[in-house]
Give the backbone structure.
Amino acid sequence: MKKTKILLVEKSPMVVQGLTTILNEGTEFEVAAVADSLDRIAERLIVVKPDLIVLNPQLVDYSKRHSFRVLFQDSPQVPIVALVYSYFDQQWLKSFNGIIEITDDRKHIESVLNEVAQADNGHSESPELYELSEREREVLVEVANGLSNKEIATKLHISVHTAITHRKNIVKKTGIKSVAGLTVYAMLNNLM
Amino acid sequence: MFTPKMKLADVILSNPSLTLILQRFHIELGFGEKTVAEVCLANGIADSFFLLICNVYTNNAYLPSMEELKNTDMTLLVPYLVASHGYYLDERIPHIEKHLDRIAEACPKSHKDILQRFFRDYKGEVENHFQYEEKTVFPYIESLRKGEPCSGYSINQFEENHSNIEDKLNDLTNIIIKYLPGNIMPKERVSVLFDIFQLSGDLNKHSLIEEKILIPYVETMERSQR
């Protein structure tokens, strides 16, 4: 069976060696390449074509935090998992597709990577998912009108759970979290 | 990590955003070759606290341990936070607002109103947030520090109410980058984006200081008073 290829972006030889050993022995993943700094990523991406990137957020300069994905623009659909061993701003960590911690055991690491690898398939195959669906637009308008999840569910004849899922997808696609922000979005797009 | 014996100029040059920190400690530029310890002494600032802030701003991975917090002189914690509030409210936010107004003026009327209302509401939220801290939380901390009895409030309540004021700024960047029609004030938009990134980075550190330094510090004081 073909293994899922990982590009590991990490400076510490100890950590590189450790994670490589853990993954290469008996998991579906393999560390196919290592980059010890962000500058080396572009060349590795072209050569290795990884399915997944594991990156130590510490290597990203503070000022570049919001924009570091630019480095991966040649393969924008490849998910990036943070390899964390110190404190980071939670808000920022959320922008990664998954998080593994230095203290995690093999089983946990494997399950995080599996989840991320599988979630990715949906995205890369159907880029139209990035546009809001008709239903999501309807939900968005009601959010902007100030309705609660429960009220939205009743009005659109869907379950509360479905309403929440739509809302989550709206936030994921637009990057906008606050109701006020979503209202601006709805108005700029002439949805209301 | 920065130390008291380093030249202050070297500290600032290694992380230019610390220039802003100087302002909040009322340290004036022109300190020549003086070390951090010397400049702090001359300005009546505990260098342990000054360095704590510089290190938190510079090293993303760094957070002080309880032990380090215990050995740090926290006299200036509240004045520092108040000075930061002043900088955000009196300088950065009005500056961004002015730019945004200009962008809004170039938009169709309906867009103009919604953009301006969004930012006005955001500004109001930030003002309330800071005001709550300055009227309720900070006086409480100062009386704790003086060992005065203070019942009826505890830092837990602050923890619960500590709302996130960074989300809306992120929303605003998304709106400006993705959804405002491209032909509207392109140059102005790029420059306002930089301003927002800078403010949002600074606010992130500010919240980090409140959540990971201020709260644990006050909890320790609360425990020792009981």
